[in-house]
Design a protein that fits this description.
The protein is mainly α and 419 residues long. 76% of the residues lie in helices and 0% in strands.
Length: 419
C-alpha cells in the first residue's frame, strides 16, 4: 500500500516537472489529484484491513497512519491554493518518500527514502521571498547530514549490536524531532514556505517513529530514550515560552509532543506511540496551516505584533483554538484519548509524577502561546489581513472535526482496536 501511494505521488511529481512554469493551475490540479488518490488508497487499504476478513495480512500495520498522512497532504494542498512549480514538485517527492519510508521493508531502503526527504525539504527551502530561509537551509542541512551519517554508521557497525542500535536510535530521534536532536525544527520552520512548514513536523515525526517501530530499541538505548523524553517535554515547553516567533513556538510544542512519543517508544509502547501520533496529526497540521496563512498575508509572525486574532479574525481563532486543544492533550480532543493509552504505563510513582509535571509545563507553555496570539489589541495589519476564505475553511473544518472527535465516547474503543 505504501509503495502504491509513493508511486502515485512520485509519478505526479515527475509529471509536474514537464509542465511549464506558467501552468500553475494545472500543476495545482495535478497535486490535488495525486494527493487525493493517495488518500483514497490509504483509506481503502486501512478500512479493508480493519473490517474485511483476510485482508489484514495484506495491509501494513501502519495503514491508518498512511491514510491520515495522505489526507493531511490533500487538505494542506487545498489550504495552500496556487503554489509555485518548485514548491509543488518538491512537496510531491517529499510526500512520496515519506509514504514509502513509513513502511520501508529494510533499513537501507528506509534511509534511502530519508535522503530523498531531506533533499526535497532543501529544495523547498530555497524558494524566494521567505525571510530566514538561509537559517532554515542550514538547519535542514545539519539535520540531514547528522541523521544520514548516524544511519550509515549504524549500517556499517551491524556486527556490533549495541553500537549499531544506539546510532540507529539517535538517527530516528533526529527525524522524530525529539530532545536532544530537535535543534533543527525550531530554526527551520520560521523560514520555511507554506507546504514545508505544515508538512515537515507531521511527516518527519511519523517517519522517525516508524523507524523505532520496525527496528525496536533495546537496553541501554531504550532507557536513555525514556530519560531524554521526559527531559525533552519540559525543555521544549520552556523554550516555547521564551520564543518570539509564532511558528517557532509551535515548533517547540511539536518537539515536546515528539519527546513524549520518544518516552513511550523507550517503554516499548510501539502500538500506543503510533496511535498517539495518529491522534495528534490533525492538530499538528492545523498549527502548521494557521501561522502559514498568517505569514503569507502579514510577512511576519513576531508574537509582539501578532495578537488580537480572536477579535479581528474569528475563523482563524477557531483554527488555532482547535489546534491548541489537540497539541496540549486537553479533554475533548482526540489527542487526549491517545494520551490515555500511554499515561497508565508510567508504572512507578516517581515516573508518573515527573511525566504529569512535564505535561503541566507543556500546558502552561501552550496556553501562553494561545493567549498571546489570540487576545490583545491587534494592529492595522491584522485587521487588513482578512479572515480565512472559503477554500482555507474547507481544509480547516475536517481537521478541526478530527481534533474534536475526542468528544465521542466510543472513540476510545476504536483507538484501542488499532493497537
Amino acid at each position: 500500500m505504501s509503495a502504491a501511494m509513493a508511486a502515485v505521488l512520485a509519478a505526479a511529481g515527475f509529471g509536474a516537472l514537464f509542465l511549464r512554469n506558467r501552468r500553475v493551475r494545472a500543476i495545482r490540479v495535478l497535486a490535488l489529484i495525486a494527493s487525493g488518490a493517495a488518500f483514497a488508497i490509504g483509506l481503502a487499504g486501512a478500512a479493508a484491513g480493519q473490517w474485511m476478513p483476510g485482508a489484514s495480512a495484506l495491509v501494513p500495520r501502519e495503514a491508518w497512519m498512511l491514510a491520515v498522512l495522505a489526507g493531511s497532504f490533500f487538505l494542506t494542498f487545498i489550504a495552500r491554493g496556487l503554489a509555485a512549480k518548485t514548491e509543488s514538485v518538491a512537496t510531491l517527492f517529499m510526500m512520496a518518500a515519506g509514504s514509502f519510508a513509513v513502511a520501508a521493508p529494510s533499513l537501507e531502503s528506509f534511509f534511502a527514502a530519508v535522503a530523498i526527504l531531506w533533499m526535497s525539504a532543501g529544495a523547498l527551502t530555497r524558494l524566494r521571498g521567505i525571510d530566514g530561509r538561509a537559517a532554515a537551509l542550514r538547519a535542514f542541512g545539519a539535520a540531514a547530514v547528522l541523521s544520514l551519517a548516524l544511519g550509515l554508521a549504524a549500517l556499517l557497525t551491524e556486527r556490533q549490536p549495541v553500537v549499531s542500535q544506539s546510532l540507529r536510535c539517535f538517527a530516528f530521534l533526529c527525524l522524530l524531532g525529539a530532545f536532544p536532536l530537535h535543534f533543527w525544527m525550531p530554526v527551520a520552520l520560521p523560514g520555511a514556505p507554506f507546504l514545508l512548514a505544515t508538512l515537515v513536523p507531521v511527516l518527519f515525526a511519523r517517519v522517525g517513529a516508524a523507524g523505532f517501530v520496525h527496528w525496536a530499541p533495546v537496553e541501554p538505548a531504550a532507557g536513555i530514550m525514556r530519560v531524554l523524553g521526559m527531559i525533552g517535554i519540559c525543555w521544549c515547553a520552556c523554550a516555547a515560552l521564551a520564543a518570539n516567533n509564532l511558528r517557532e513556538k509551535a515548533a517547540y510544542l511539536l518537539c515536546a509532543q515528539s519527546s513524549l512519543c520518544a518516552w513511550a517508544l523507550g517503554k516499548g509502547l510501539f502500538g500506543e506511540a503510533q496511535v498517539l501520533l495518529l491522534a495528534t496529526t490533525p492538530a499538528a497540521v492545523l498549527i502548521g496551516i494557521g501561522p502559514s496563512i498568517l505569514y503569507d498575508r502579514l510577512k511576519y509572525l513576531d508574537c509582539a505584533r501578532v495578537s488580537g486574532i480572536a477579535e479581528h479574525l474569528p475563523r482563524m481563532h477557531f483554527l488555532l483554538a482547535a489546534a491548541t486543544l489537540g497539541l496540549l492533550f486537553l479533554p475533548g480532543s482526540v489527542s487526549f484519548m491517545g494520551l490515555q493509552l500511554v499515561l497508565p504505563h508510567a508504572k512507578t510513582a516517581w515516573e508518573l509524577w515527573l511525566l504529569t509535571g512535564a505535561l503541566l509545563v507543556l500546558l502552561v507553555a501552550g496556553g501562553h502561546t494561545y493567549m498571546s496570539a489570540c487576545f490583545g489589541e491587534g494592529n492595522e495589519d491584522l485587521r487588513r489581513a482578512g479572515d480565512l476564505n472559503a477554500r482555507e475553511l474547507t481544509a480547516a473544518i475536517p481537521l478541526a472535526a478530527c481534533v474534536l472527535a475526542g468528544l465521542w465516547p466510543g472513540l476510545a474503543r476504536v483507538l484501542r482496536d488499532l493497537l
